[in-house]
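Figure 6 in text form: structure in, sequence out.
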C-alpha cells in the first residue's frame, strides 16, 4: 500500500513546476525542524525526550497553524493550486501579526511586526532590528504565495521564471532554519545529544 502511495505522489510531483516542488520541500523541512527544535528544547531544559514530545510540538498554536495550513496547502497543490496559495501564507501572517503576548516578555507580542513597533516605541533598537531580521522569511513566504497565486490565475508558465523564483525562495527561507543551525554551529547541541 505504501509503495502505491509513493508511486502516486511521484507521478503527481512530475506534473508540478519547480516553484511548487520548492514549496513542498520547504513544508517538509518546516515540519522536520519544528520537531527537532522541540527535541532540542526539551533536551536543553532537561525534560525527557520521547516521541510524545515530538508530537506535542505540533500542538502549540504556532505548530498547529503551521502544520494544518501547510498540510492543507500541499493537499490543494495536487487538486486546486489557487486554494493552496491562499492557505500557504496564513502561518506566516500569524507569525508577523500575532497579538498574543510573548512568554519571555509579556510587554512584547509574538507577532514580529507588532513586536517591532513595540520595541521602537520602547526605545529598544536592538530588539527592533532583531524583529526585522526574524520577519524576513515570513515576508518572503507571503510574497512567494502572492506570486504563485497571480501566476496561477493568469496561467503563466515559464521554466526559467519558475527556477529563479524557486531558488530565491529556497535561499531566503533557509534563514528561518538559522536558529537551530546556529545552535549546532556554536556546539550547544549535537545530534548525539538529541538521539
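Output sequence:
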Amino acid at each position: 500500500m505504501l509503495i502505491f502511495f509513493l508511486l502516486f505522489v511521484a507521478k503527481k510531483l512530475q506534473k508540478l513546476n519547480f516553484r511548487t516542488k520548492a514549496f513542498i520541500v520547504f513544508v517538509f523541512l518546516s515540519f522536520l525542524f519544528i520537531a527537532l527544535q522541540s527535541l532540542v528544547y526539551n533536551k536543553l531544559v532537561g525534560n525527557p525526550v520521547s516521541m510524545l514530545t515530538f508530537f506535542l510540538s505540533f500542538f502549540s498554536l504556532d505548530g498547529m497553524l503551521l502544520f494544518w495550513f501547510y498540510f492543507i496547502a500541499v493537499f490543494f497543490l495536487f487538486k486546486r493550486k489557487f486554494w493552496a496559495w491562499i492557505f500557504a501564507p496564513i502561518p506566516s501572517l500569524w507569525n508577523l501579526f500575532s497579538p498574543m503576548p510573548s512568554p519571555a516578555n509579556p510587554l512584547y507580542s509574538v507577532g514580529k511586526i507588532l513586536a517591532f513597533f513595540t520595541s521602537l516605541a520602547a526605545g529598544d533598537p536592538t530588539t527592533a532590528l532583531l524583529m526585522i531580521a526574524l520577519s524576513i522569511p515570513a515576508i518572503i513566504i507571503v510574497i512567494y504565495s502572492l506570486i504563485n497565486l497571480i501566476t496561477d490565475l493568469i496561467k503563466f508558465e515559464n521554466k526559467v521564471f519558475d527556477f529563479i523564483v524557486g531558488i530565491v525562495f529556497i535561499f531566503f527561507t533557509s534563514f528561518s532554519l538559522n536558529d537551530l543551525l546556529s545552535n549546532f554551529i556554536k556546539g550547544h547541541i549535537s545530534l548525539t545529544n538529541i538521539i
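Caption detail: The two ends are 30 Å apart (CA to CA).
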